[in-house]
Amino acid sequence: MSEKIYTVGQLAAHTDIKSVTIRYYEKIGLLPEATRSESGYRLYSEADHLRLLFIRRSRRLGFSLDDIRELLSLADRQQESCAGVDAKVEQQLEQVRSRLKDLHAMEKELERLSACCEGGVIMDCRIIDTLSGET
Q1: Where does residue 65 rank: exposed (0-12), middle (13-18), buried (19+ CB within 10 A)?
Q2: Which of 8, 16, 61, 65 is deepest in the core (most CB within 10 A)?
Q3: Residue 135 banded pLDDT, cuts 50, 70, 90
Q4: What order of strands is seen across the sheet that includes strand 6-7?
Q5: Who contacts 113 (Cβ-Cβ below 8 Å, separation ≥6)?
Q6: Would you give the DSSP letter of residue 122?
Q7: Mean pLDDT score, 58-69
Q8: What is the DSSP code string of 10-77?
Q9: Distance from first CA to last CA of the chain, Å, rounded?
């Protein structure tokens, strides 16, 4: 049985990543350069498919493209310690926790602003005054 080969459109459909994004990942080196059919179409392997799924999952966890490049590099070195991966995940977890803290503070401030509203007209709006720095 031969390996599954994907066109960029098929790969996009199977990975839920747009074709333009797949070509971009190829351009910046996250995905190896595709082979070409005789008619010039890009052709991707099952390994490319799995690599794109890795990238998509990593993006959904908030990793930057540079972080993903590093994680892919680590993943390609199967016999090395996973300490580098652990450190990268811990770093990302700290960033997520920091963002959550910031979002919670934003939520509290928005709740406070919302409670200031007494209805009426814009010229008497305490929210607009607060956002304008007038109070």
Answers
A1: middle
A2: 8
A3: low
A4: 6-7, 42-44, 35-36
A5: 127, 130, 131
A6: G
A7: 96
A8: HHHHHHT--HHHHHHHHHTTSSPPPEE-TTS-EEE-HHHHHHHHHHHHHHHTT--HHHHHHHHHHHH-
A9: 73
